[in-house]
Amino acid sequence: MNLEETLYRHFGFSTFRPGQKEVITSLLEGNHTLGMLPTGTGKSLCYQLPAYLLKKHVIIVSPLLSLMEDQAEQLKVRGEKSVLALNSFLTPRQKQSALSQLNRYRFIFLSPEMLMLDQVITEVKKLDIGLFVIDEAHCISQWGYDFRPDYLHLGSVRERLNNPLTVALTATATEAVRTDIKSKLNLREANEVVSSVDRSNIAYIVENFSNYETKLTRLLELAKEIKGSAIIYFSSKKTTENVTQYLQENGVKSIDFYHGGMEQEQRKLIQQQFITGQLRIICATSAFGMGVNKEEVRAVVHFHLPVSMESYVQEVGRAGRDGKQSMAVLLYCEGDEGLPLRLLDQQIPEDNQIEGVCTMMSEQNENRQSPEVLRQHYSLSEGQWNFIQHYVKEHQEQVEMSVMIEQLKQYSKTRRQYNINRFAGLFNWLKTNQCRRTAILQYFEEDLLKPNLICCDRCGVNVKELTENLKESILNPVHPFEWKQELTAMLVKDPELYEK
Amino acid sequence: MHLLESFKHCPLPKDLNGIRFRDSTVPFWERLSLLIQTLSHIVHSENRFYPIQRNLQVQGWVKHFLAVNQKNRNELAECLLSELTGYLETREPLEQNIFVWRLTGNRRIGSTYPQLAGELKLDEGYIRYVFLGTLHGLIKASMEEPARYSILRGVVKDLHKESERQLTQSTKVTLDYVLKGMELEEIAGFRRLKLNTIEDHIVEIVLTDSSFPIDSYVSAEAQQRIAEAVKSCSTRQLTPIKRALEDDEISFFQIRLVLAKSGGII
């Protein structure tokens, strides 16, 4: 059976998307592989399909709990039963029972923290591992856009597992980051499969405004003009809610908001309403999107600036997964750069916070404060707290406290400058006079291979014409109902035959 | 005046009973909503859907419930339908609507609270209360008339047993430490509470769960003697029992434990 047949049999697709087949072939030939496939082009297939051919266990390391849950769920919905997501959502008893029968599962998702536990490693080691998958592999590089210190241990974990066949997957990574990924994972000879970050069916548009009101009015206009599904991204929960309300009050139908501060059940409802077309537009923070597989999103709009080119490309990539013409619109108003810069700043601790926390952490037992007290006392954001915690954990045994404090201050400074530089990458793109597509590719050190007919605002795309010509998505709005009829229709196949 | 006025417009649901159903409401709703979603897809011959409840325990429960249930799926769905309709028919239109809007089926995903608030032009918090009242009412009905609500009874059954032995928050903390093997004095010291308070917690635990072992606090022999003294005094008052025992080594705490464990039957 050739790869296409396997693809069809297990996934129901008849052709591969760019990069998928190359990664899979490289793996089946037994090579460690680094695959860079842009968002929206089916990265997960690169490990799911080999699983059926290798007929061995596949271990997937995934940085985000919600992403892991989504991927496990998607496999289950497709009918794959032997899926396990081993993470902190499980109760200790569930964890024990899962660990004692790991052998039963084909796909085993793990968080990096889990893989630091000896007990987990011991059990995983007993398995015949066909493939070791590192998803969102850019997280291992501190020069990647979403550095996760926990990922640094994966190199040694691989060794402890006797160097299983490994695939590192990422959507966006510059060459420097790719080299860093390979060296951190001890995969220097790995094959690289790099697909272009270019998504030819997405048109890039930036619109400039002189004040908030005109930007808001334009958003309202866009929300009415775009007939298909759309995601509008914001950087603040409060604005997400307020602007949604404004749009609702001004006649935009089937629109709602989503952010990380909502209860889990309500979040799930909104997400499913969007996927099934009950909602047409979602206003969301960056918490929305990972693991949301919706094919026909016609537009992604940015009301605020993302923090980097990488996150922009990631978010925009949620448009047009079905390959049909889609667009990315960024609405920029003079001064908008303040918000992302502030958000980035809140991730890195200040000098006085570093001194205060480190000094108090080194206190002897009776004077020791709980983490909550420390965090509150120095008003540390979660990001700042983790930043310090992790650094201290890694370095406290090697150097004296006073030396470490100085090193940590220096490191914070470097990170802060690094974040600013990366934001500058996005900001330059915003201000460029050049073709936007070419500029995105330049950022990722690629060349544009063939010109695009419907390219970007710099290449003269007419936004009005474009919005009018975007296909409509399949929508499924809810209509008022009579409760009893609705309940009956829900639970009985043929309500007319149902008499009681 | 203002408050009274608003109660007239938005009366508190009559079945609202947070104290009694505190712990069973959420799992009851998680199970029921997922069971309805699952049946809805099955009867419409759709076998792929994204479960609206993510909790694996809840998903496991629904699978198990369907596996052990002998009825054919269509019949099961019809029975559930008639139980729900039967109950809802006794309720106000507002309750009927909120409940059905919250449900997810094969054609429609349930509404969120803010969506319902917008739709019905009512306060979101009020909608939450009304809905909670419906759930409490359903739990109560299924417990009082198990024959009429046999499927709902099956959903609630093991949940409510748990919530009958509810412990106060502070007692739960003490129980945690006890289960970790700490001595009562240690717990008292650690939590900066009086030993008496910790002892009260232990009595509370035993009162709600008579299978909780008390041997490490009262020797088997002392338990025997206390039980005899209780019998001979034919009272549950502590002082006469203590007097009858004629033994300074036996504390009031130990007597209370034995009484609690016996649940009144000695």
Automatic annotation (TrEMBL), chain A:
Location of the Helicase C-terminal domain: 215-365
CDD domains, sorted: DEXHc_RecQ
GO MF terms, alphabetically ordered: 3'-5' DNA helicase activity; ATP binding; DNA binding; four-way junction helicase activity; hydrolase activity
Pfam families the UniProt entry points to: DEAD, Helicase_C, RecQ_Zn_bind
GO-annotated biological processes: DNA recombination; DNA repair
Keyword Zinc on entry: no
Alphabetic keyword roster: ATP-binding, DNA-binding, Helicase, Hydrolase, Nucleotide-binding
Chain ranges of the Helicase ATP-binding domain: 24-191
SUPFAM superfamilies noted in UniProt: P-loop containing nucleoside triphosphate hydrolases
The keyword Cytoplasm is assigned to this record: no
Xref: InterPro entries: DEAD/DEAH_box_helicase_dom, DNA/RNA_helicase_DEAH_CS, DNA_helicase_ATP-dep_RecQ, Helicase_ATP-bd, Helicase_C-like, P-loop_NTPase, RecQ_Zn-bd
Protein name (database record): ATP-dependent DNA helicase RecQ
Lineage: Bacteria, Bacillati, Bacillota, Bacilli, Bacillales
